[in-house]
Amino acid sequence: MLSLKNTLSSLSEMNAKTTKNLQSLGIKTVEDLLYYFPFRYEDFSQQKKIIDIRPGETITVRGKIINIKTPPTRIPKKITEVYIEDETASVKAVWFNFSLPLKFLAKGKFVQFSGKVSLYRGKEIYFQHPNFELINKTIFEKSEESYQISSKTGSTSGLVPIYPENRNVNSYFLRRLIRLILTRVELNEFIPTNFIKEQKLPNLKKALNDIHFPKSQKDFILAKKRFAFEKMFLIQLRAFSLKQTWEKNSAISIPFNKKITKHFLDSLPFKLTNAQKKASWQILQDLEKNQPMNRLLEGDVGSGKTIVAILAILSALNQGLQIAVLVPTEVLAIQHYLEIIKLLEKYQFKIGLLTGSQNKLNYLHQQKDNKNKISKTKFYEKIRIGEVSLVIGTHAIIQDKINFKNLSLIIIDEQHRFGVKQRSFLQQNAMKIGDENKKNLPHLLTMTATPIPRTLSLALFGNLDLSIVDEFPKGKKKIITKVIPPQDRDQVYNFIEQQVKQKKQVFIICPLVEESSKISEVKSVKEEFEKLNQNIFPKLSLGLLHGKMRPKEKEKSMTDFKKGKYNILVSTSVVEVGIDIPNATIMVIEGAERFGLAQLHQFRGRVGRGQDQSYCFLFTSNNVSDSTTRLKVMEKTNNGFKIAKEDLKLRGPGQFIGTLQSGIPDVTMESLSDIKLIQAARIYAQSLLKYDSKLKKFPLLKEKSDFLSKQIHFE
Ligand code: ADP
Ligand code: MG
User: Fold this and answer.
1) What is the CATH number that goes with domain 480-637?
2) Pairing of strands 407-412, 351-354
3) Which end of the chain has fewer beta carbons closer than 10 Å to its terminal beta carbon, N or C?
4) Can you give the pTM of this predicted structure?
5) Ligand 1 atom closest to Cα of 339?
6) Domain 258-288+302-448 has CATH 3.40.50.300
7) Which ligand is nearest to the CA of 611?
8) How confident is the model over 183-215, as pLDDT tens digits?
């Protein structure tokens, strides 16, 4: 018997070429192969006699092979033709550059074709690139009755699995191999069986058989559900065990100081929103504990996360402890540095800025020599002895050279902008830079401006505690949003010219380039830029920003825009998050229907930072009412959580999460849209770990879960 862990190359059926081909699909082991799921099934049960088929329909016919031809062609394309007949008529199937039929089909054998019926030169009916399956004579003869396709072809019912293919591997090959392996592999359930039973899901063996070779639609639906559950369960197990491990660490308790907090809040020109109060309170309570906080603070752009973070910072500062604030880019670091200095001006704390190219200390200002730059070595020394209490910067902060005296709190802003690898690096290193004697971990607060509905957050970041700021400060102006059909563009262009006269600035986001399209994103944005520059706004100054620019170039583009060098910044979807350009009041998004609502919302968040009324124009490329209805959601609300929910409902989690977390497998995606399933998986995972925290009694499960941890990174 084979086991899931066996590599395929060890099988006698495999040769070097097939092994390599499968590897090009990421399939190395038996498990990889069996978990390579079909993305759809062809329904072979819709069949007709040859005489009855009509051009344009998608249908299955069966017949005896009467001829096979490979006619010579002038074009460098190989043609394969296979003729079949039943008792009513004959028909041919044609394949271009696809010789597989020649390998399996021969005169006198019986076959079924399934595919689209085409018409050649207006008269001759034929199948173009049909799927084909060998069948045996008996089946052919009693075609109308129930049928069993020869097991050699790898299929057992009317539903034939179609897999994601590439040049070297096709579904036909995969079906045969999977069918073979399934008969030879030993499959042991690794999820506790009572969970499976309670959820009314098939066990591993049945589910694998059903997802590849379902006898009915119900079979594969349940099988898919099982794998979605399996994935979510493993993810949650991993999350909870990470959480357990994290909580075993100790941290410096930072007591809540009511007087100081109140004093600070009273000095602000506004009152906290309820959402801010709640989040702050959750964080301040976490800080009091002797175990490190690991919390995610989620809130829309402009929801006021900074103040919430400042309250935590203030608490730590008052205890004479150090804090590090990490942000993804230098521009953002400087922005935060200036903002935080201003907010904490009245206290005598020593605050530093540290990025790849900048080292500054605020209090050196006060030494009247008006020079707040400092050498790196000196800076590091001041951090080491604890003279600098708060360091704000990019990941330049995290280096072996830099040691803190008593780092007790790390705040990571715009966390999703750090890559997955960077994030886990940050977290691991954050632990290392803890305090001098490495006994304590710093408390960790991550912040994101991407509003994700709570359930989805729990599913994705199950190891973190969650605080959500889902309310805007009173008096924050709503960004006026309008969906603009093609015929109304000129009005917007005129409006832009007027606004620019009043020194306002404008973002124009170019449409997503469709994957199938030949033109590249860069080419498209450059074309758009030229068009706008020459035809539409010849008198204005325009800047350009796209993903193929180097990080430094991107930052320069943004900084120049911020400085007012351009009236308009034309950009692809890479435009920086978090950057504050109060003067930018107009956001135009071209081809808006191609973006998800959540992403449109992110773009919109680039404007509306200042005091003035801001606008967002969603240009559509046509008047299609479907997409317009969807986009109208943006006109109605500015609340990212509402929009995220709507987006999730309309487009599913795949689109929604998109750039946020790439590399999530399909089944996981599917599981993310099933809230009940996420909740069930969480409850099961938690209860199992309570009962057996190291999974000693569940070795198979432990192995699976350890394996998964290498694939999916958590915050
Ligand atoms: P973000 O969540 O995007 O980081 P910020 O913390 O930068 O948002 O806050 C955006 C703006 O709102 C800042 O100018 C801040 O001073 C202001 N602000 C924050 N909280 C409140 C409040 N409760 N009432 C009024 N204004 C607030
Ligand atoms: Mg912010």
Assistant:
1) 3.40.50.300
2) unpaired
3) N
4) 0.75
5) 7
6) yes
7) 1
8) 999 999 999 999 999 999 999 999 999 999 998
